[in-house]
Amino acid sequence: MSVAQNPLSVEVSLPREDVALITVQGYLDADTATEFQHHLANQLHHGRRHFLLDLSEVPFMDSSGMNIILRVYQEARELPGSVHIISPTPAVRRILDLTGVSITVPVSESTEEALALVDQPQS
């Protein structure tokens, strides 16, 4: 499938000043990963420390998407901050589990659950 059929849509909202809720729709792959990375970098630049990544509308993600999630996770941890994945689709959840990303990056079922984790002291 071409990118034209499955364009990436990324919406950013701010539940709190230091928290960016990033809602992703579409395929997160080699063709669209750069756009996703630009949105994350922009939020880091504007002082966001916590990233909630809503992947409930992402039917497919390859290693490009996972690498960006892990990169922002490492950058956020240094701030200190955090990254949380929200409601991944079954296909994306399977990739996260198989690669071990879900062990490193917390996966939540809702924005509220992820925000509660943001408020917990980091270990």
Automatic annotation (TrEMBL):
Family designation? Belongs to the anti-sigma-factor antagonist family.
What species is this protein from? Streptomyces gilvifuscus
- Check the record and name the Pfam families matching this protein: STAS
* Database matches in SUPFAM superfamilies: SpoIIaa-like
* Matching CDD domains: STAS_anti-anti-sigma_factors
Q: What is this protein called?
A: Anti-sigma factor antagonist
> Where are the annotated coiled coils located?
none
**What domain of life does the native source organism fall in?**
Bacteria
Gene3D superfamilies annotated for this entry?
A: STAS domain (3.30.750.24)
**Residues annotated as signal peptide:** none
Residue ranges annotated for the STAS domain, each copy included: 17-118
